[in-house]
Write a structure and sequence with these properties.
Chain A has helices at residues 9-12, 20-55, 57-66, 69-94, 98-129, 146-180, 190-215. Chain A is mainly α and 216 residues long. Chain C has helices spanning 9-12, 17-39, 45-67, 75-101. Classes of the chains: A mainly alpha (216), B mainly alpha (552), C mainly alpha (137).
Amino acid sequence: MSETTATAAPSFLAHHFESLEKQTHAARLGMWLFLATEILLFTALFTGYAVYRYLFTPDFQAASRDLATWIGLVNTLVLVTSSFTVAMGYGRAVRGDGKGTRALFLVSVLLALVFLGFKVVEYSHHFHAGELPGRLYVSTRLQGPGAPIFYALYFLITGLHAVHVVVGMTILAVIGLRAGRGAYTREYHVPVELAGLYWHLVDLIWIFVFPLIYLI
Amino acid sequence: MNPSPASELQGYNPRNYLNSPATGLKSWLTTLDHKRIGVMFLVAVTVAFALGGFFALLIRLELLTPGPTIVDAMTYNRLFTLHGVVMIFLFMIPAIPSAFGNFLLPIMLGAKDVAFPRLNLLSFYLYLAGASVALYGMVHGGADTGWTFYTPYSTTTTTKVVPILLGAFIIGFSSILTGLNFIVTTHTMRAPGMTWNRLPLFVWSIYATAVIQILATPVLGMTLLLVAIEHAFGWGIFDPARGGDPVLFQHFFWFYSHPAVYIMILPAMAVMSEVVCAFSRKNIFGYKAVAYSSLGIAFVGFFTWGHHLFTSGQSTLTGGVFGVLSMFVGIFTAIKVFNWTATLYRGSISFTTPFAYFVGFLFFLVFGGMTGIALATMSLDVHWHDTYFVVAHFHFIMVGATLMAFLAALHYWLPKITGRMYPESWGLVAAVMVVLGFNFTFIPQFLLGNEGMPRRYFSYPERFWALNVASTAGASVLAIGLVIVLVYLLVAIRWGPVAGANPWGSRGFEWDTPSPPPPENYETTPVYTHGPHEYHEDPEPPRHAAPEPKHV
Amino acid sequence: MAGPGAATPVEHAHASHVARYAIVWIALLALTFATWGLSRFHIPGGWGVAVALGIATAKSALVALFFMHLWDQRGANRLVLVTSLVFVALLVGLTLSDSATRFPLSNPPGSEGALPVGPTDYGGPPPVPPRDRGLTP
């Protein structure tokens, strides 16, 4: 079976797969299953948010209005654009243009850094204002019982998301640099696709975080 | 089919996964061979089972008399917590899938390995890492919260809850990776001719288990993390004094932990679907019903978690909804029980040790399951909740069904895994001891619970004394039976008679390989023209094509 | 079917995907502004949440279908995503419905319909016990 091809494909084909097509499909399915677990990981936090928003609606609305909505808006635009540049980077990989992939992935990493920078600004504001979770809440702006819980969930959700941004950035940087060095070809660029899928999930989660935490 | 001469298949396969491609500790610790990883898991979960069993014996010793017997109340709390944590997270969840699933799944599909061998090895190391972290916590006194870690006690206790939580969290990732691997392997690595409707039923049930592992385990991970954060930092998500809702923890916890019990029972059903066919020399009655009911259990099992919260303060409406939904999941188990029984009808039954465990499994699954349906009735549960009735119910399923299936799997597949056979008479003697010991341990507990003896109490009123003594006596017999099994299996692995490729004459696909199998499972990819367990009188055409002609 | 090394036919269609990505990006930017703008109107009650979630769903559908290529890939991947979303809805929905249908006094103090915040709630000091006025026998 392997005698028929003389392309570079056999070096990418693992011994236990019968074809590169099956291997690629397996890699994608595996990645989607992993993304499903990430979705369920955040679901517990979103459930907590839903329950406590229902129980403490006025407090949550007041705390939400207290957040710097413009930062949330800018961060959303930044993250959505980084998703676009990642998609474009994958488009370059499909054409075999590793250097193009590297450039676009590095732009995405820079956009992610902008995102994190804004989060740092927000977090330090909250620290200074005493708007912290649970028994650490010492702010005097909002007095309701729901405010400490709002901030507990705020830091949990955005914090866990930020961890995923860092992980995603790292993956994009590593894969981008490897693509620039010619590690992937027109026929085989699955790692680029998988890295992109992970980054798009990070974006997907934020697409829900933004309205639920900042806007309603 | 391996084009090896028939003589090679009769004896002990000289070039097998145990001695190829290399031997030595390093080759095992860095292996990518699913069979070696399965064997390492098997050793690890057996050690874990011994540890959990040791805690169980201490518990039963303490309950031999009302009042303190060998430990005080605080120690007793730690004992039942650790018994639960070790048994559930370190044994029940990984045992059949990670040990037998890993070993058998690729072979049954005609594949050379799982889809992601390196993730498979990682899942083993994550298991060890999580077990080590939890063990560290145990050595430093462990937790006293019960394995269910209910808040607000778990967030305020001074015992070593955090390492136990983190250990379980890490093991959760091991479970997720195993599930991921199995799903992708089943979708993408079936050999030619292996359609979904020709899959061995073992594969169907393991696949359904994997679906639950993917969807439920992350929620547990987040929940345990939240408890650890609250314990360490006091963020108040579950603390009523800070506006938190302790029942919310219970929702999160049981959203995983109820499907988790299906992670524990589906692989047992997987094993039994194979055993019943092999030892009645008859194909399964109602293949599609059994196959799809596995998916049904996996799916409906997610809709039932609130039956653990009947007395916790959730709304009556929600309780009613969960009670009704909990009834549905029993339908799928019933389908399987009827189909297994119908398979026995007019079969040619050989009453071997695996079959003995199947019989025990069948009765205990039915009685355990029926008491589960009774418990799902909210009006009955308010009396039984947190009594020994519940304890007996879940031990009937976990020990009576899953442990029996684990033992059946050990005996059925020992020849394939090691190439050697265990002593059948010892097998039957031990099986009788295990079944009898089990009955004497847990039937008294149904009676105790119905009389009102609460669970997790280290002392009890004198009127419960006799039944507790009976239960402890039964546990001793059960323990001795299990020790006997361990001893003769170890002896057989080292000195047992050579088993050959197929000592049972089973028509399951894994028996087409030599014993023990070669590292690559199959020299040439098999081609399947029908499903497994086809026991007909007429001679069959070869199931596997000749080696593929080389294309020019 | 070509040998294992050749690209599958669908890959060649990616030439047109640049335009697709750009259109989706513009749509995402527009929807982001839309959800922000609509939030300024403070649509009352559940409708505000519904609108916000609806727009978020539309945005994520665009990302999943086009950036993540579910539009032109096999059913297994789509099934994985849809199934996970079913269970998201299950956990959020049933848990929220419990809080919403409970006997209100069993909800945390300070929440809708529950007891008002007491002096010991949220870390306050414990109340001083009343002085014994000598009435106990």
